[in-house]
């Protein structure tokens, strides 16, 4: 996701290529302008569909990275020059915005030099407030993230036909959105990466999670607006 608030541009967990091992991209390849003039990149955890080093190298090694605890060395050893670790509750500035790390309930991914790395989400505050959950299961602290949240970006699926522990499915994501009660909720982490050719036999996980989330959330919290975006689409908080 590209988040543009108060003239500050933040890119979350960028995956800019068309293939990752047996996974292939469905939907639009990110437009080149998506990665222009970035103020920071937010990396929620070290799973390869969220911390893709090939994609990060395309952005240049000078781009500021905000990363979870225990992962700085992974990026520093690969030449990235501005890497800031944030533990839950810690904050830093990015352009005109304040970015605070928050809890995430998700196995963080293990890489060499990052055996103790964690997973986090991010709370972004300026004239608008945005919650980017990264990958997470539901946790009680979601009720207390922030009052008057403008936008919640919530994962509603993954990259395969099934979900493991530490993920939200559409029903659980709707429960999370109802607990957070933002003005607007947008489902993410669905309909993008999928095992090669599996869509010919089982395509529901590519198409169903976003609309199902919207339907479930309308039942639980009809006061929360939901916008279902296909990969490559954008929307405005104005």
Explain this structure:
With 238 residues, the chain is of the alpha/beta class. It has a single domain, classed as Metallo-beta-lactamase, Chain A, CATH 3.60.15.10. The protein is built from 5 helices and 15 strands. The protein has helices at residues 53-59, 72-76, 170-180, 204-207, 209-220; strands at residues 2-5, 8-12, 19-20, 23-25, 40-42, 65-67, 83-85, 91-94, 97-103, 120-125, 129-132, 151-155, 184-188, 193-195, 225-226. It has a 7-stranded mixed beta sheet with strand order 8-9-10-11-12-13-15, covered by helices on one side. The protein has a 5-stranded mixed beta sheet with strand order 1-2-5-6-7. A 3-stranded antiparallel beta sheet has the order 3-4-14, with no helix packed on it. Strand 6, helix 2 (72-76) and strand 7 (83-85) form a beta-alpha-beta unit. Helix 3 crosses helix 5 (209-220).
Short descriptors:
238 residues; Metallo-beta-lactamase, Chain A; seven-stranded mixed β-sheet; five-stranded mixed β-sheet; 5 helices; 25% strand; globular
Low-confidence stretches: none
What composes the largest sheet? 7 strands, mixed
Secondary-structure element pattern, one letter each? EEEEEHEHEEEEEEHEEHHE
- Could you say what the CATH architecture is? 4-Layer Sandwich
Strand order of the largest sheet: 8-9-10-11-12-13-15
Instruction: Please work out how many helical segments DSSP would assign.
Output: 5
Q: What percent of the residues sit in helical stretches (DSSP H or I)?
A: 10-25%
Give the mean pLDDT: 93
Rg over CA atoms: 17 Å
Summing up helix and strand content along with how strands pair, one would put the structural category as: alpha/beta
CATH C-level: Alpha Beta
The counted number of beta strands is 15
Strand content: 15-25%
Give the overall shape, derived from the CA principal axes.
globular
Domain module tally:
1
CATH topology: Metallo-beta-lactamase, Chain A
């Amino acid at each position: 996701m590209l988040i543009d608030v108060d003239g500050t541009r933040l890119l979350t967990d960028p995956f800019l290529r068309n293939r990752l091992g047996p996974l292939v991209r469905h939907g639009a390849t990110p437009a080149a302008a998506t990665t222009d003039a970035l103020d920071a990149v937010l990396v929620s955890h070290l799973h390869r569909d969220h911390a893709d080093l090939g994609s990060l190298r395309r952005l240049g090694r000078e781009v500021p990275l905000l990363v979870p605890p225990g992962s700085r060395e992974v990026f520093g050893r690969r030449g990235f020059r501005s890497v800031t670790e944030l533990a839950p509750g810690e904050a830093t500035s990015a352009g005109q915005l304040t970015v605070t790390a928050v809890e995430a309930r998700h196995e963080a991914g293990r890489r060499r030099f990052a055996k103790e790395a964690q997973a986090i989400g991010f709370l972004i505050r300026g004239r608008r407030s945005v919650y980017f959950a990264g990958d997470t299961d539901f946790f009680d602290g979601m009720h207390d993230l922030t009052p008057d949240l403008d936008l919640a970006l919530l994962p509603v699926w993954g990259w395969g036909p099934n979900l493991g522990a530490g993920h939200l499915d559409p029903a659980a994501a709707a429960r999370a959105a109802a607990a957070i009660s933002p003005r607007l909720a947008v489902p993410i982490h669905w309909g993008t990466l999928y095992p090669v050719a599996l869509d010919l036999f089982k395509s529901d996980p590519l198409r169903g999670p976003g609309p199902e989330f919207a339907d479930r959330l309308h039942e639980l919290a009809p006061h929360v607006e939901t916008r279902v975006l296909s990969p490559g689409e954008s929307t405005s908080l104005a």
